[in-house]
Amino acid sequence: MADDVAVDNPLTPAERAQLQNDWYQQRLSLPIALRLPLYLSISSLTGFGLGIIHGTRETGKNAHRLPTTQAGWYLYHKSKNYVSLLGGLKEGFRMGGRLALWTGLFAGMEQGIDRFRSVAYRTFLAQPAVEPLPPRGSPAREVERRRRITERREREAERERSNDFLSTAFAGLGTAGAFSLVNGFPLPTFRRIAMMGLKAGFAFGLLQDAVSMARGRRLGYVEWIRSQLGREKIEDNLAVGSSAG
């Protein structure tokens, strides 16, 4: 790539630590390799718990079919709890797996939209011209090399700032649409579920942004709002100064 930097010497421990911690600029300050298992674990456990409750209740619906013989009553009391627990476990695993599958699809869509926005940002943003490094062995070469590494890291962080709630909202919309298509819902139901997915993705995206900001991540739209507010404040101060003069 044009902005790649030729490395003559190994990085210092501080630089290696900084490169390893660059994933703090990602969603929830976690890379996708850690974020996806977190999503899947929470969703599968939630689905498992809901499935156990639902399966136990469904199995208990047959409790009104009481036996009429002494042997039937004996078997009824002996197997009632076992059958109820078994039905709950089956439903728990089934619902947990389904919820984890849809959560994985949502996370994949979210990551894909993030990557698309980052590539678009990199494509349409003018890249700085790269000039040859100073001669090998000169002190200026090492200084220039480290300066370019810092600039490249800043550009990567700038691209990551576009990973915000918009990607999550569209991922929620896409997941809801896929869920409706798979289940063959009619158009009114499709629209209602799509709006629910969009709103849920919007809310979850804002929650992710809040957590990321609390951990020190800088977001593009937040930085833009701050710059606009700062510009207005400067213009107001200039206007007050000119009127006073």
TrEMBL record:
Q: Where are the transmembrane segments?
A: 36-55, 165-187
Which keywords does this chain's UniProt record carry?
A: Membrane, Transmembrane, Transmembrane helix
Q: Where is the composition biased (Basic and acidic residues)?
A: 139-160
For region Disordered, the annotated ranges are: 132-160
Identification of the protein by name: Uncharacterized protein
